[in-house]
Write a structure and sequence with these properties.
This protein starts with 12 loop residues before the first helix and ends with a helix. The chain has helices at 13-17, 22-30, 47-64, 90-102, 118-124, 165-183, 209-220, 239-250; strands spanning 35-36, 42-43, 67-68, 107-111, 130-137, 154-159, 187-192, 226-230. The protein has 253 residues and is α/β, with parallel strands linked by helices.
Amino acid sequence: MLEGVHVARQATLEQLQRVHDGSYLEFLQSIDRPILLDADTVATETSWKAAVLAAGVTLEAVDRGGFALVRPPGHHALPDRALGFCLLNSIAVGARYAQAELGHERIAIVDYDVHHGNGTEAIFRNDQSVLFVSLHRWPFYPGTGAQETSDATTVNIGLPAGSDDKAYAEAFTASAEPAIRSFQPDLLLVSAGFDAHERDPLGGMKLTEAGFRALSARCSALAPRVVAVLEGGYNPETLPHLVAAAHAGFESR
């Protein structure tokens, strides 16, 4: 079990509105019974509070240089709608908070969840102050993230089903690391999803604990300040061990 600080901080509407449309936030607040927001995403009368807490704990992690162990995840959430279990895009809220309230100017986001972080990409596409780098299975849900959609501040690295530690390491060396070093961020945020693990029921990949530790350690070496936020990972037996391995990687700097 990880030792750490337990907080119950809520993101404010002003902080959320830097990323999400006001009408969408009003809709989430109004939910008073279980409903389907898309084919995969259920919301209930308590979902708004959970999502606002997840975003708030992410802000606390940005303040502390920590690892936000939160659910629901966030990287699929778009400015105006939920998607793929995600209601609010916590890592995007954290990035805008770091810029608006903490004075960070250049932020890189690395997403190694097995699914492409389409919401995060959409929020920051064409924003020259934020570099988004995603290593994900391709082709796969949500259908975005093809390599040819990359540009100066969006780096999509699609990996085939069954990719292992070696494949991820090679892709990180070839594409992710050079882009991040060239961008020279003063803050790096990591969408730490663990559904690329070999025993995850959804991912179809073959990353191990050692692979996640190595990815996290390599991320931690690429900026003076690094923060992580939990995304996917759907095997309750393996998830705590994978989080601990990644945490050890982040702490190895």
